[in-house]
Amino acid sequence: MIKVYSKNNCPQCKMVKKQLTMNDINFQEINIDENPEYRPYLKDRGWQSAPVVESDIVDFAGFNPQELRKLINHYKKIRPNLVLFLSKITARKRTNRLICAIIEVI
Questions:
Q1: Distance from C-alpha of 44 to C-alpha of 5, rounded to nearest angstrom
Q2: With contact defined as beta carbons under 8 Å apart, do 85 and 33 qualify?
């Protein structure tokens, strides 16, 4: 899961969120202006500016196009593999609502 720690009126935060959204990458946004309890967590990890992006493959702060592209490419590779896996399951069995719902979410 990707987490984006953002602030109000932050152009870099908006650019990161826009890139993820345009590429159909799901993420959880945590606005630290509206949720100040996350500020100590970010400070303890050494982050001093927003946005902060945390994921299972890369963590970075600011609008970092190289790291953002790496993240987007990673999640775009995972998604087709999961859809292919689920489609193979449905080919073997009758399609059920749960699998259809999962594919729609992806």
A1: 14
A2: no
Which CA distances in Å does 74 have to 6, 48, 55, 78?
22, 26, 11, 7
Extract the runs of DSSP E, i.e. beta strands, from the chain: 3-6, 28-31, 52-54, 60-61
Q: Which of 81, 83, 77, 75 is nearest to 102 (CA)?
A: 83
User: pTM, whole model, 2 decimals?
Assistant: 0.73
Q: Are strands 28-31 and 60-61 parallel, antiparallel or unpaired?
A: unpaired
Q: What count of Cα atoms within 13 Å lies in the side-chain half-sphere of residue 37?
A: 1
pLDDT per residue as tens digits for the range 63-90: 999 999 999 988 887 655 444 455 555 5
Is residue 2 a contact partner of residue 75, using CB atoms and an 8 Å limit?
Answer: yes
